[in-house]
Every structure is written in structure tokens, then in C-alpha cells.
Structures
1.
Amino acid sequence: MDKVREIALKTLYKIDTEKSYSNIVLNEMIKQNRKELQERDIGLISELVYGVTTWRLTIDEVIKKYSKLRLKKLSPWILNILRMGIYQIIFLDKIPKSAAVNESVNLAKRYGHKSSSNFVNAILRKVKKEDYEDFFSIKDDIERISKTTSMPVWIVDKLMKQNSKEMVEEICKNSNIKPEISIRVNRLKNSKNELKQDLIQRNIEVKDGLIEDFLIINKAKNIDKLDLFKNGNFTIQDEVAGLIPKILNPKEKDFILDACSAPGGKTSYIAEITNNNSNIDAWDIHEHRIKLIKETASRLNISCINTKLEDATKYNNSYKEKYDKILLDVPCLGMGVLKRKPDIKWQRKIEDVNEIVKIQSQILNNCSKYLKKGGELIYSTCSIFKDENIDVVEKFLVENTNFEIEKIKLKVDCFNKYLQSNGTLQVYQNEYTDGFFVAKIVKK
């Protein structure tokens, strides 16, 4: 039996039953089976796992079309075998339908019984690419967008209340694009050109990113195993995440707080921008995540970050008016990063919105008191819901009249179209970046 598809199946089963993130489970499974796998095998396993996770809703609609049994009645093994088979038939042109069907039937024999393999065989033989295309003729906008982009109805409905139909369609479609890998040059260790040459020498395709310290890389496997990574010459970071410290605009000697810091990507960039010559307090509420910040700082040879186990939702008077700059990259529903973490779609519920907004407001209210007069605070999320973004900021400003929004100014032209009339930045996922929101708030 095909070992590659079996590993993909076990990964999907574990994601489902343990409600784990696909990237974490996938990395574990590949590590466990590394000796038996070629690079192309790892590529196919990743394709199947991310593909099925991304397109789950759409694939399940195809199963419902042909199955007399309800999805809940199917064993998780058989359900995921069907999902993998349908993903290959509809979305992967390079795999012949016969191979997708036969390998799925073989898996069903092992992870089910004789009637399971007959059931899988009967359904997959009926499936065709047109089953997906038929969804585009659905008249109801919300249902059509949901089924053609594999987006839960509650998310589409929520987005429709704050955007045009065309915009929502675009956002949902772009959430399924495979993201590029971007890396941030550690300017404390090497220049952009030096790193570029070093990567080219290692046969890695590389081009300039949108932001000055960033590069986009292609055809690079296990990038975190590279000597250049281990030696701290660069960090793997999405460019959008890198834009936020640039908007904060930290200076040398500043006292800076990053109140929701782990795993330390933005914190370490603030340190690099200030030439390792500022005073940065980096907080998190979990010890194991504090460890990640320390490891990042150590690898990048940064000494100006002071980590602390601290809960930003609880006020601590000892920090009152201590900081020149504060970064609040608050916990959020993560709807802007679905192309990197497609599992989020299936794990979040509409009830989670109010819960997370409460936490965001607590963090903003508390940490704003730690800002010096004339200081600047960045409130940011990787979400695209107004409730988590401008609504939180506007409510805070109404209750705290000694603060105001300062209009964000950008040097990166491609982001300028996302600047809002109120001075904030709201980016929706597009062909080159994730979705995110940034507001710059100053204490008068």
C-alpha cells in the first residue's frame, strides 16, 4: 500500500480527533517517517494534508451528493479517505483518477472492512471535476461563496455585513492561495545582498520582498535546518508581520513593551531595527512560549530583550507610564491567516467573537496605562472582522479621551490602498499577503 497516502491519512485523522493544528501534526509525522521518505513524498503528503484541510467544506458537499449515509455516521478514517480521494480527483490534475480511486480503496481495506472499501469505491467512481463547477451556479450568494471557496457560512455572512459581495468573494478565494515563504534579513549579522548571495550559493531561488529587510524564497526544503538559519542570519516571517514593527518606528534607547510577544518574531525585529540598543520587555502568559522568545533572541544574537511571564489582561501599577512605545499584537480569531492555518476555519465559532473581543479590550485598556505621555501604541491583529479591529479601538477612544489615532504613513506603496480614511490600516488577504489590521494610537 502507498506509504505516502497512509501518512497523509494518519495526519488528517490526528488533526481531526485531537483538534490540533495541521502544520504541527504534519511536521511531527514527517519527522517520525523521515528515513523512509523522498523529498517528492513529503511534497505530496503536505499537498494532501493542506489541500484536504483547506477544501474540507467543499469536499464534504461532494460526499453528501453521492452518499446515502450522513457524514457523522462515517468513521473518521473512511471520511478522510474519501476526502483525500475527492481532493485528488477534483483539485490535482497530475494524479490520474484511477490512481486516486485505487489507492483510496486500498486504504479503506486496511482502515475499515470490506463494505467500507466497496463504499469508497462506489462514491469515488462517481466523482468528477464538474461536481465542483456546479457550485458556481448556486443562486444564493452566501451559499455559493461558501461552497466554492470552502468557507463556513457564518464567516461569509459576517464578511458580507461589512463588505461588498465582490470583495467577500475575493477575500474567501484568496484565503486558499498557497503562501510564499518570506524571510527577514538579520541586519545585525549580514546585509540583504550578502544573505542573497549565500542563499543562491546553496541553490535556493530568491527575490526581493515588498519590505526592505525581506526576501522571498522558492524551492527551499527544511529551511530551518540551513546553517544560515541556525547561525541567525535570517528569520522566517511573513512580510505583513514585519510591517507592524516598521509602523511602530522604534528608536535606539527607547523603552518598549511587546505585551503579547511569543514566539518573538516582531520583538526580535524591533531589536534589529534599534540595532540591539533599546530596552525591550517581552511578555507572554505561558512559560513554554517565553522559552521560544529567548531561543529566537539567542539565535539572532540579540541581548536587549528582557522576557517576563506576565498577563497583559491584568493591570500592574509598577509599569505605569514606563514605555515610549508599546506593541499590542493581541490574540485574535486569526481570520487573516487562513492560507497558512486553514484549520482555523473549522475550529472557530461565531460565539468566539465576543469572547476574544473582551480579551482584546482588556489588554488595550490595561497596557495603554503603561504608555508615557506623547508615547505611541500599536494595536494590531491578524483578523479581518471589524468587531476585533476598528470597533475595539473606537470604543477605547470614546472611554479614553487622552488618546487619539495617529494616521499611519507607509513607505511600501502596495499597502497604501489599504489605508482607511480614519488613519488605520486594514489589509484583506490578497495574492501576496495575509489579512491584518493596524491602528497607531498616541497618548496626548
2.
Amino acid sequence: MLILFSCSNTVTNDENDISYSINSIPKKITNSNNDFGFNLFRTINTSSVDSSIFISPISVSIALGMTMNGAAGETYDQMRDVLCHTGLEKDKINASYKALIEELYNLSEGVEFNLANSIWYRDDCVIKDDFRTFNVDNFQAKIEALDFSKEQESLDIINGWVEDQTNDKIKNLVEEISGLTVMFLVNAIYLKADWKYQFDEEETKEDYFTIKNGNTVICQMMSNRTKYDYYEDDNIQAIDIPYANENYSLTIILPKNIDQINSLVQDMSSDIFNDIVNNFDADTVNFYFPKLEIEYKKKLKSSLMSMGMILPFGGNADFSEMFENTSAFIKRVVQKSYLKINEEGTEAAAATMVEMWEKSGTGDEEELTFKVNKPFLMFIREKQSGTILFTGKIMEPVWEE
């Protein structure tokens, strides 16, 4: 079944005239990336209603953005529309990714941040000059030919690159290389940031966290009392936890009714999220949050196809802008991610791999309390551009010393 998704901020032709540069990314571009992220989050959640999710939507978007530079015709149109770039020409899409990457780096002083792209192709294939130029100039992609017949050697090179870019947090992203594999397009993202207001380890206590069936599990609950940006209505509490440089933050959205966690995911959009963060007010909050460490892996082909990206995965895919001498299609899209939250701050990483195969014929004075003791949503974002880097639904906190 094809699930329909909206990209609420379609870019008009007039906006194609905008020159994108650091600190001048149109809000519609940020919202387009975030719209794709929310659409992907909802799609994954339909088959993971009882499980935790942790993804980097911007990593998926960038990996597919590089891939889209090799697409043509309806294949290109489907990828562009699912990525919520409808109405933008290719050069403007590339320019928006370039400006976003530059802005994320420009605003990352005071945190450890890395975003890197690479393209690895079979050495008997010839990639087109425009495909190379678009991805080098706009995504700063490392592009290298490998002898895929030497499988282990190629795996070591690609996976070693991913480990280097993610501080060894993402390992074995690519597990095998088929005889039909002609290319891997890879994005890696890493963030390590201390809290602006760190938690005192001595205040961390065992506490109860309510899980999906109403039972409770023991978690390591951190706590502090300070002034945070806070929002509350009849259905949710929301809070924004700044990192040390204040450009990046962790936004938590907690449903008041535990049974509403999945409907909250299904309803979430750029407009709703922006309404929440735009209505934050600073207030003193007694804040409780469980320590977490999560490793997550997701195959994304079925999710992307249900969102409308169908042709790129089949024998009728048109990636004629990618190779001089090879017809290809997307075989799989896989993301692995990592999250650790403790008293000092947050460490998060993700890597997304697109594997191409050649075709073989197929404000109140009252003190507030915000206790995260049941399933919740989380978003790690860069606040000036509004870009959401990581998205999560946590059903049960896991922590091992």
C-alpha cells in the first residue's frame, strides 16, 4: 500500500532564484528536510509501535541527495518529491545541502561535530563527470574506486572510513558486497556535546520508568533544577535542554497519557514541532531524565517505497546520470545509529548507506516538574537553522555500566 505523505513547504519557482549561503538558508529548505524526517519517522513507527526508534533523518536525506544526482526522469522526480524538495531544480537542491552542511559546521563551535560523505564504486565502472562534480562540490564527498572482488579489503576500507568519521561508534555498516554491487554512497554524522547545565552524578538515583504495558522497569534517573525553555498543554509537556554552545539542544516531548505516544508520532509534523518550540517560555523546572545508551539499525527500503520512492529500487530505475557504462538501481538503504546520554551530555552518531546494484535484467511562578518516566520523543536539533539531526522514540531506557 502506498502511504501518502505531505511535504508542507513546497518551494515555488520564485524561490529558485535564492542564492543559498551560510546563515541565509530559506526556512522552507529547513522545513523540507524536517518534513522528510517526520514522514520517515512516522513510516518506521507503523511497524515499530512497541519498540524504540533512533534515527538521523538528515543523514538519510544527504545520502539519498547524493544518490539523486545520478537519477533522471521519473526516478529523479520520485526521489525529489519524497525528500520534500518538490519545486526545486537540481542545482538549487545541491546548493541547499551545501549551505546546510556549511552552516552546521559554522555553528558547531564548543561541540564535537562531524559530517562526512563518501562514494565508493567498483573499479571497472566509469562515473559521469557531472555526478562527480555535483557530489564533490556540494557534499564534499570523498570518491574512490575499489576492487569489489577483493571483498574483505573493500569492506575494511569502507567500514574503516565510517568508524573514523563516527569516533568508532558505527561499526560494520556494510556487511557484504555482492557481485552485482557497483556503488556505495555513505553519509556519516557524529555529535558529542556537554550540557550547558550538567547533572550531578551524586543526584542520579534508581527510579521507575513505566513501559508500554503499564509495568515498570528500573532506570538510572538523573535530576537537576534550573531554568529551561518549557511548554505545556492539555496533551504534552515539552522541554528544551541546551548544550554548552547553545546552538544545539535536545528537545523532549512527553505525552501526558502513555497510550498517546504512537499517535503523537503519527501527528508530528514540521508545523506542529515549530509551534511547540516557538511557544517555549523560560521557567524553573525540576527535571528528571533517564540515562540512555542505544544502538539501532534499520533497513529503510520498505519505508522509502511506502513513501513513494518506488522506481529507484526496481528494474525500471533510471540512474543514467551516474555511470557512463552501467545501468543501476538502489538495492538497499541501511542506517545504523548510536546514542548515549549521561550526566555530562550527549554522544550521538549515525551512518547511512545506499547500495547500488547493476541491472542484470531485474510562565507561571509555581515550580514545574518534568519527569521523563514513560515513553517519550526526542529531537537533537541545531536551533538557528532549525535542522533536526536526530529523532527518537524511546519506549524503555537502557543503560549498562
3.
Amino acid sequence: MEEALMWEKLEGKKVKCNLCHFRCVITDGKSGVCKVRINQGGTLYSILNSYVSSHAVDPIEKKPLYHFYPGSLALSFGTWGCNFKCRGCQNYDISHFIPPGASIDSYSEKVTPEQAVKLAKRYNARGIAWTYNEPTIWFEYTLESAKLAKKEGLYTVYVTNGSITPDALDVIGPYLEAFRVDIKAFSDDSYRKITSIFDWRKILETTIYAKTKWNMHVEVVTNIIPTINDSESELRALASWIRNNLGKKTPWHVTRFFPYLELSNLNATPIETLERVREIGLEEGLDFVYTGNVLGHPYDDTYCPKCKRRVIKRYGFDLLEKHTSNGRCDYCGEELNIIE
């Protein structure tokens, strides 16, 4: 174990973790909600160190990030555990599982931050992404890796549920370039049905902070779950919030839900629903709304909001055509909020 960052001592050997918005108060010998940060004798430790549950070279489009170095490769890393326990989590096998005790070593591959950067360069990856489970709970590792990656000219990405506190964001902010955030719902009731959570509005505040304070590139994902977060009024309010607080050129990915775990009783999202949600986003003034998890769908492509020409054509995670230069449409010169 290594001593954690972002915590404070309390009386009676208690500690308070200030890494995510749960801000757990942890008694001696216990862990916080993430189960990977443990109080031992009045000091907070992380059990994760450099333990990797999975890593792969992914197209950046898989994150999904469509306006951030399109067509590039990101070396992606995940570890164990999560501070959310989403009822339909597709990465359940790593995010809901913590290898018991010392056996974390036998379940994991150990990749130090220095090795991660070397691997990224060996695989000709343009950058590093922390994904598959919530990167916030792996803060010490991702921070050190991000510092080294930036020195080597690699980009850095958090694929996150948005639970990181502004305090922690101020520490990693100088080294983190993209904040691909899940906004899972836009009401108390909907969020409760997906995962137990603090006040979800803090996710909105953190996302604004990532963009305005640290100038991170932000893209939003909402997995549209039938009967839970698919009401038109809720989605319209979310689209309006993105426009007003992140900007109308912020990409919104509305993705298809597939039944899993505790949500196995639900149906997959009808494609017609995704298409309607895209219309809602456009009606609310967003320029870029993408339908995700539908292979070959035309609304997975990027269209210039001014001249209406298709500027990026995709098939799955493959980029087939690109007609942009320096973030602008090659046809009419419109600024597209694309980093390349």
C-alpha cells in the first residue's frame, strides 16, 4: 500500500478522504465507499499502487471522444473497484470487484507510471487514457502517470463518472487534457435508480470547473435507459444545461443501453429513441449530438453545423474520412471544437 493523497486527519484516528464527492469519514481499519482507500492507524492508504486490471491500445473514439485527436490511438489503463456501483455496469468484473488482501498482486499486472509512458510510445499511441473503471479512485497513480506523459508530449484522458472534487482536480488539472464525463441522468429519481450517489449536481459543478478552470476538453455521455432516464423533459433539461454551461459545440453522446446485471429485466434502447434524443439535443441548440452503440448509424458521423456537410465519417471506432483542419471544417471554415 502507499499513503494516499487528498485526505485529512480527524480525532480518534479517523480520517476524511477529500478525493471524491462522497468525502468519506473513515474509522481506523475501515475503507471508504470505493473499498480501495483504507485507514490504518489514522493514516489513509491506497491499495491500488500500480496494479492494472486491464490495458489495451484503443482508438480514441472508443472512449468515446470524437472531437479530441480523432483517429488517434490511446493506451488505456484500468484498475480495480469504483466509488459508484451502477446497477447495469458493463465493466462489472473489474469495477465491482476488489481482489482480496494480498492476492491483488496475483490478479493484476503491475505497470508503473514510467512503464506506462514507455509502452504508450512503443505502441505509437498519441496519449494515455484511464478508463474501464473510475480513474478518480486511482488518483495517485494517474497523477504521476499524467505528469510523466505530459513531459513526453502524450495527451491525457479521464473517462470518468465526474465524482472527483475540485480540490483533487486542482492537483491533477495542470496535467489532464480531456474529461470525458458520464452524466447518467438529470433528476434525483433517475440517478437513484442507476446508482447510489451523493448530490449528483456536484458532478455538474465539477464538469464546469474542469472546463472553465483547467480548460479541459469535455465530452458528455448519457446512456439512455428505457423507463429510467429517457423522459423527454429530463433529456431536454440536460441538453439545455450542456448548451448553457459547457457550450453548444460540446459533443453529447447518447448511447444505447443493453440489459445487464440488475437491469437485465429492461429492454435495449430502441434506436428510434436515440434518434429522438438527438433531435431534442439539436432543438435545444447543441451542434453535435451522437448516437452511440449502434454500428454504422449515420448519426455517429460528424456534420458541420454551418454548411451541413459530413466532415468525419466513422464505422464503429474506425475513422473512414476526415475533412477538418486545425479544428475547422474544410468546406466552409466553421470552427468545430475539434482538437487535432
4.
Amino acid sequence: MSLVPACLAVLCLAAVNGCGGGSSPSIQHPPPVVAPPGGSISEISGTVTSVNNGPILGATVRFGSQSAASTQYGAYIIPNVMIPAGQSSIVNIVTATATIKGQAWSGQNQVELINGNPITSNVQVVLSPTNSQGSIIGVVLDSAGNRVSGARVFASIGPTFPAGHPDQLFFTNLASFNTTTRSDGSFTIPSLPSANSYTVTASLAGRINATTVGTVNVLASSSTQLTLTLSNPSGSSSVATPNGLTAQTITAPLSPTRSPGDASGFLNVIRRIVQSKRGLLTHHAAPSQKVLLHRSLTRSTPAGSLIETDLFWDYVQIDNLYGYDIVRATTISPANFTSIATVRDPQADRFADNDPILTPDHLYYYSIARLDTINFPTGVGGESSPVQPPVSVDPLGPLTLIAPSSGTVTAATPVFSWNAVNRANLYKVLVYDQFPTLQDSSDPNGIAPVWSADFSGTNATYGGTALISGHTYYWAVLGQDDVASAFTISALQTFVAP
């Protein structure tokens, strides 16, 4: 059994300036700021990616007057955002810019910060070449033709059927582009990558959604106009139970990489390998409207590691769908499910839980329920579908490389070794002849491994073509459990051929 597909054509990480050397930005946490009475302090975190979900390194991310730089995984954190007293929330735009191969890229998305909620995560910003972008503009009306202010408008590329999965619909972009209608009901979603298959949904609590499915064209340097009409409900309202819920967990090094000799961009490469293997690559993430209802304040994950559980489910266009409720439990009998997030997006089909309390070799159960836009927010049970039958994950522990250590001059035929991980029954060794930032066999800049092979033990002898004397190579090991639901990835290390 192979851990990764033979062809990595779908692994198309964005190539960015600086990926091949020098230092990389890292997330810095300044001293905490004290909130004013009645107000609160929130932290915004998320990722900066290309439209194909590739992480972008060194993008400048801005929220108001505050800014941060994205790390090699595309991650960023903007801490100490003030929500003033007397405001239940603030709504603003997160923007990001980068220079990629000498070309200006940009993107933006809207985020709402809730007073009293210390963390707003999964705020995704999708970048594309600025000169190729267009926009969607329009107005949202009610059934009487009146303009509606405060409605949310979501846009995603697709949906489409991924190869080999004709029964599943997915969107291309990682998260919805979104905005809120102005006082006159008008809206603008700018900085959109050019595409001819956008789905656009207008949504407002108490109304039936208005959706245009997969037919909205966005052209460079032009604006596409839409009129979306929300209708009034008639009779009782409910939503069906979601289908297709599945989960995977990945344990990865936590520390940001500061040189190409480490794991710059590599974790997202592995994440995409895993998702591609399981037919999950094109699910997009929970969007910037995700409001965390619970977040652990303690860390159980081993020092230097991050555990992320990714949930995936089937997208279905439903006229009264408001979003999703995400619940988690540590026992199933009796069930102790706790709501950990509300996903406010009728186009969402993925959620990432990276709560620091997640611990290796502990079983976690997850389920989801759909939220009904007509009844929301009258309380859990009153507005939601029945929960999906739960799925479980059991995270693996960290995987550490033993030999060769980074920079070591090896024998002509290197021997690789790593620590055994409890419950990992298969390991894949990946060797590259250059820093593996962009992996896409259909891209001229794509980087594929020069050798990869699966092993059941904790050592392997190189079996690829002859290595070039004096050349620096990169290697890492990916482990999985026996049901391919838990993965662990090492850092990326170098060695030099003799």
C-alpha cells in the first residue's frame, strides 16, 4: 500500500520569492493588551493561499492599522485586536499582498470579531495575480423588491466533481470569498481570481437563501453584476442531516521554519498529499465567519508539535442552510459532545480543529449538524438538523528523524532512520533534489521527489538513481496508522551526497 499517489499533479503549491533561501517570517506574540471595561481583545489567525490552496510565504496581512507576515505554511496571527465597549462585534476586511516571481498578488476577505470571543481562527485569504482579478457587484432584495442591508454574500469557484468521485461536489478555493450588504442592499466582492463557474449565495437569518449555482463568470479587470432575491419562509422549516462526514488527523512540527533546510512549506505539501490520497483535496475550509464557541486554554500536545483534525462532508445546495454546528467528544458512551464552533457559511464543506488540547493516542469523536437559516439563532436543537453519526480520530505522536542529521555528508547510498511512532504501521520516505516548495507535475516549476518508498520499519536504504556528489538533498518521513485516518510528518532535513 502506498501512502501517496504515484502522480502528484494535484499538488500545486504557490511558488513565491524567497522560498529557496534566507530567513522566513515567524509568528510573534507581543505582550497582551488589557481590554477596556465592556470591551474585549481578540486574536485573528488564518492562512494565506493561492486559489489552489497552496500556502504563500511572506505575504503582508493587514487588519486595520495592524499587520503581520505569513509564515512558510501561509499562517499568520494578528493579536490584540480591540473590540470597543458597547459593540457586540466588529466587521472589517483582512487584506494580504505579496510579490510572486516579480508579479503583484493580492486578496482580501471579510471577518467578524465577536465581543468576548478571544480567538477568531480560520480567516482565510486567497491571493491571485492582481492584474487578473475581477469582482462581483450587485444588490440583495427581499421578495417585495426592497433592498436588504446586513445580508451575507458568499462566492466560491465551482462546485465541481473531483476525478473519481462523481457523487461529490466540491469548491476549488479554500474558503468562500464573502462580504455584507451595505445599508442600500448593495455589495461588492473584489479581488476575485478570474473564473467562469462561481456559485454566489446571499443569506440572512429568517429568510430563504438566494443562490446562483456555478454560472457566474468573473473576468479580469471587470465587474459582474448580480441581483439576488431573498424570499420569505412558508410553513415550518428544517434541514436534512449532513452526509459524507469523514475525518483525518495530522501531527506536525510546530516551530516555524527559517531556512530551506527545514520544513518551509512542506507540511502543507503533506497535508495536500494526504487529502489527495483520500479524495478530499478540493474541500474548502471553514471560512472567516467561523465563531469559536469553545477553545481550550491548556496544551496537551507534545512540546514542539501541532495536531490538526480536519473534518470533511458533502456540499449540498440547500435554500434554508445557514451554516453548521461542530461538536466534539472524548467519550461516545455516554456521549459528552461539546459545541466547539459555529460555521456561518452555507458553502462550507470542511472544518479544521487545531485545539492545543488535542493529544496523541487519545480518541476524539466529532459530529456536525446543519443550521436552519429560518430559525437561527433560537438555540441548538431548534434550528439544526439531527447530528451526523459521529466519526473518530486517534492522533499519532510526533515523528523525529534520527539520521542523517541536517547537513551531514552521507555515504554514496544513504541509510535513513527515524523514531518508531505508536500505532504507525507504514512510513514513506521522501527524498528531493531541491527544496520542495511547489509540487505539481503539470507546472514547469513543480518539484517531485527523486525517490519515495514505503517501509514498515524505522530505517531505509536509498534506492533511487545515483546521487550527485556535493549536492544537497532534502528528506522527510510520513507515517500513517493502519486505517489511514491518522498521519504524522517529520521536519524536513538535508544531507549532502559525498
